[in-house]
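seq:
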Amino acid sequence: MGPEDEHAHQLLADWTPEGATRRARIIDLDEFEDLFRTFSHSAWRLETRRRYASDEATDTYREFVETGGVEWDESDPYCELIRSQTAQGKRVERVRIVDQPPTTGQLYLLNNAKRNRRLGEDIRNLWRADADRLQLPSEDFWLFDSRFAARLRFDDGDQLVDVELITEPAEIVRYSGMRDAAWSHAVPHEQFLAKPSSGE
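struct:
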């Protein structure tokens, strides 16, 4: 870990208030979806999980496992929403943490990135070894407008259980620090695919 990485880690540690307590505000999936309609300028995601059970229940996942490729439909409501937001100049960005070797679920999402990029998303990838060196937490979340975060909570079977909406300023500073550390070290999607090796 170089001086820059140590500095980023120290900032992440400093931004976590000692003895911080807060009340969780759980929102349903409709409220969560509304966040993508109402954000003003940026929606940023950190994807940290090795698998998402909801992906594995889809026809596209089965197609990917059977053939290694997918014909992505770009006309579903999520695609239309994201396309309309990015067309207005709003940023939708994400960093995906990838294992070495990638899990089947991660390979599926790397393939899915072709569709997301066509919608206007900026997707970057970060090897888990590098995320561990940065000491990024394992939280899976969206950060909207650097003002509020939606933390996705999963059960032991990797099913999304609910979403916690976080608005406390100290927590938003912490999430913003995670975003800045991950984004600055992540590799743009096309470059990542062209050089599939970890910096271990």
